[in-house]
DNA sequence: CTAGGGTTAG
């Protein structure tokens, strides 16, 4: 055997270093014992180190124990032990070894000791121990050291103590590249992309020497932010200081350009990569798929399979056509099939991605089945399912899934609560929303911009605009979405001037308005009668800022003009459009015609609508109502006949009211409520008072049934009247009544509510399909303009 | 260096 020639310790150490397998190492170990080298400390240290490398943890431990008796281990060996135990899934043993070192020996821990033991504390997740060891490091003067300091930074980030991590980092005397990189990559690990870029900027300013690893990590943060400008800047900074275009850096750049939609640059950079590996190919595949170039994505995927024989989960997830899934159902099916056969479907990242894409395709059932069949469900899978429900308007299943999560003791995170808050907002579930808010206040989840924005939206949509604004004011970081949410909140409540003021503030801040901003502002103007202001802003955005309007923007402009009664101008606007108007634009005109009872224009608009979209119910209902206004009942009936023939049912109206945190839902003429008798009594009482003071019953623009309307109004009681009556009997006098309905409020109910607010001296808040109505003392905040 | 989940408008 080769060991015959062993003569000295140095050659044994070389053999240990070069050993490739555990059996090989064991043979060497045997030779060490045979040659009486067991007492040689350096040999034993190298052997322990190598045993840990081969994950032979128990052997390493035993070797260490056997050494103690003969000759005591030095600090170096202790460090090897602490590191090895920590890295091989024994963080507690690692910590115990550290304590043994401190208490049973005369040895003093050095910077390496702290670096290693601190990583064990990270794995244990025990903050108290972490602080204790930080204290030890401070006393011994190692907290300012790059090695120990980097370990502490990483530890605090893993413990979720970002501020402490920053403090430790700021205390490091002269951070080296590794220390900077640790700070930067720790922030990336927890998705603090913006903060990561800030640290990198500081590093450049302070003249810190960065390497290709730094640049690659910062680029991954930039990709997370989808900020192309930053990506280009970092590229320039890198080139300026001569950081070579290492393959990792190029891969990072491919990723940034892909995420930002510049697929041509991504492809170009991909071509510069010297040896494309799995990672860089994955980045490129994801880029192709995201840009809609499915053909290229598949081509590269096939190349990868041919040349390497296998791919990983990242490859598959990247290939899933998330940008336009409805156009690539075949591919989706193939991927699903491929994963099923290869067993990759068991990978949580793949199943989660599939659940998400199915939900986006409205294939909730399919998503749910995949969800149920996933054996290893992470929080992400739950989040995908919950948001799938919430985004499709299925608020109840979203909330019940959230409750099931808690029953199963699966901890929701900030992503979960963001979706739940969105569901609360849609549903008007103020109590649940407040409950979630309390949980957040208690510190159960991270506060971030998504959560705050969702909270603002929730409060606004549940009627509490003041709380929404309060939250908005206290946010230190705001993005476009935050501003949009607040602007549209004002629009929703008919507070057009406040919306305009906020928009001014937004322009003064550094946030660039988006298409949604303009929509929100136009919507707010339209619902407050601010025609001039809305028009001015529209042309300001389009002419001065080169903004390209979409169909929704055109529709909003038609609505703005039309709602204010300027129908002629609305038609002129339609004719002046650079593209031909679609259903959104004509629909807006039809709606305006209905408000202002212009039958001729209504007919024109509805003809266009039927031409463009024969299947839609809403248009039929509107048209039918138009004829009713004209007292042309036979025409109205014939339109409704068409609706019935095509089996196009209209949405039944319903209203929700919360009493003591419990939701109560009423439908038209609902008798099913346990307190029905009392409710109808109350209603009769109010109706009687209304008649006494001569309130007219108005039916002409009722959006509900138009057939036999006289007869129907006798027997039909709209759901919101029932909800208000119930609110009156269940709440204390003087308190606010808050109801939510799924359709637009009708004129009759609007009058009814005004009257109730006057005689009962109550504030009544009604959220209808479009907006809020705040009734006080017989007047509505919408000024009868809705 | 690559992969899964989130907020606004309609």
From TrEMBL:
Entry annotated with the keyword Nucleotidyltransferase: no
Listed transmembrane segments: none
Family annotation (InterPro entries): DYW_dom, E_motif, PPR_At4g14850-like_plant, PPR_rpt, TPR-like_helical_dom_sf
Stretches assigned to the DYW domain: 694-786
GO molecular function (one): RNA binding
GO biological process: gene expression; mRNA metabolic process; RNA modification
Per-repeat ranges for PPR: 176-210, 277-311, 378-412, 448-478, 479-513
Keyword terms of this UniProt record: Repeat
Keyword presence, Nucleotide-binding: no
UniProt record similarity statement: Belongs to the PPR family. PCMP-H subfamily.
Protein name: DYW domain-containing protein
Source organism (scientific name): Lithospermum erythrorhizon
């Amino acid at each position: 055997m080769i060991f015959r020639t062993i003569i000295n310790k140095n050659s044994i150490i070389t053999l240990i270093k070069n050993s490739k397998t555990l059996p090989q190492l064991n043979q060497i170990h045997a030779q060490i014992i045979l040659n009486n080298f067991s007492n040689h400390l350096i040999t034993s240290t190298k052997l322990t180190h190598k045993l840990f490398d081969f994950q032979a943890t128990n052997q390493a431990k035993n070797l260490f124990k056997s050494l103690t008796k003969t000759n005591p281990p030095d600090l170096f060996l202790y460090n090897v032990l602490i590191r090895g135990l920590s890295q091989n899934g024994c963080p507690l043993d690692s910590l115990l070894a550290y304590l043994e070192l401190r208490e049973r020996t005369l040895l003093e821990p050095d910077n390496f000791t702290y670096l290693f033991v601190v990583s064990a504390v990270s794995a244990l997740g025990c903050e108290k121990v972490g602080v204790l060891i930080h204290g030890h490091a401070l006393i011994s003067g190692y907290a300012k050291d790059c090695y120990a300091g980097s370990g502490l930074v990483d530890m605090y980030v893993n413990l979720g103590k970002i501020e402490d991590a920053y403090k430790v980092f700021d205390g490091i005397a002269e951070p080296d590249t590794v220390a900077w990189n640790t700070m930067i990559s720790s922030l990336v690990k927890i998705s603090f992309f913006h903060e990561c870029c800030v640290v990198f900027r500081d590093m450049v300013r302070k003249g810190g020497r960065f390497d290709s690893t730094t640049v690659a990590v910062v680029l991954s943060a930039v990709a997370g932010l989808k900020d192309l400008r930053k990506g280009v800047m970092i590229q320039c900074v890198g080139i300026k200081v001569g950081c070579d275009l290492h393959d990792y850096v190029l891969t990072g750049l491919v990723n940034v350009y892909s995420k930002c939609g510049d697929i041509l640059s991504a492809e170009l950079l991909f071509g510069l990569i010297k040896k494309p590996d799995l990672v860089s190919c994955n980045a490129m595949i994801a880029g192709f798929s995201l840009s809609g170039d499915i053909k290229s994505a598949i081509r590269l995927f096939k190349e990868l399979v041919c040349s390497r024989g296998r791919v990983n989960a990242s490859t598959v997830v990247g290939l899933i056509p998330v940008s336009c899934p409805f156009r690539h159902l075949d591919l989706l099916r193939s991927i699903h099939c491929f994963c099923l056969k290869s067993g990759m479907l068991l990978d949580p990242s793949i199943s989660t991605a599939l659940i998400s894409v199915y939900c986006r395709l409205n294939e909730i059932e399919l998503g749910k089945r995949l969800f149920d069949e996933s054996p290893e469900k992470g929080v992400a899978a739950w989040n995908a399912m919950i948001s799938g429900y919430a985004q499709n308007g299925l608020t109840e299943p979203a909330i019940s899934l959230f409750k099931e999560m808690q029953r199963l003791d699966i901890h929701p995170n900030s992503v979960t609560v963001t979706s739940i808050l969105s569901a609360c907002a849609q549903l008007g579930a103020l109590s649940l929303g407040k409950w979630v808010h309390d949980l957040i206040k208690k510190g159960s989840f991270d506060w971030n911009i998504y959560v705050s924005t969702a909270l603002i939206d929730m409060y606004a949509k549940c009627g509490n605009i003041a709380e929404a604004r309060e939250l908005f004011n206290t946010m230190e970081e705001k993005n476009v979405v935050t501003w949009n949410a607040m602007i549209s909140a004002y629009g929703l409540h008919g507070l057009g001037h406040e919306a305009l003021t906020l928009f001014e503030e937004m322009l003064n801040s550094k946030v660039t308005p988006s298409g949604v901003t303009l929509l929100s502002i136009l919507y707010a103007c339209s619902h407050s009668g601010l025609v001039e202001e809305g028009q001015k802003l529209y042309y300001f955005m389009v002419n001065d800022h080169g903004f390209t309007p979409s169909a929704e923007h055109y529709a909003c402009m038609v609505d703005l003009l039309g709602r204010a009664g300027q129908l002629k101008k609305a038609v002129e606007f339609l004719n002046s459009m650079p593209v031909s108007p679609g259903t959104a634009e004509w629909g807006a005109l039809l709606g305006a015609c209905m408000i202002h009872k212009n039958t001729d224009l209504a007919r024109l608009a509805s003809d266009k609508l039927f031409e463009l979209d024969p299947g839609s119910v809403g248009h039929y209902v509107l048209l039918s109502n138009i004829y009713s206004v004209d007292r042309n009942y036979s025409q109205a009936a014939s339109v409704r006949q068409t609706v019935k023939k095509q089996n196009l049912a209209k949405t039944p109206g319903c209203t929700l009211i919360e009493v003591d945190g419990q939701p109560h839902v009423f439908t038209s003429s609902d008798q099913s409520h346990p307190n029905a008798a009392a409710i109808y009594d109350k209603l009769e009482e109010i109706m009687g008072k209304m008649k006494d003071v001569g309130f007219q019953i108005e039916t002409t623009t009722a959006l509900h049934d138009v057939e036999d309307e006289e007869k129907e109004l006798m027997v039909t009681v709209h759901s919101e009247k029932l909800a208000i009556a119930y609110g009156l009997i269940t709440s204390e006098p003087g308190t606010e009544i808050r109801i939510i309905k799924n359709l637009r409020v009708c004129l009759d109910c609007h009058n009814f509510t005004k009257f109730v607010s006057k005689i009962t001296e109550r504030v009544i808040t009604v959220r209808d399909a479009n907006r809020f109505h705040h009734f006080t003392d017989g007047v509505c905040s919408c000024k009868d303009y809705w």
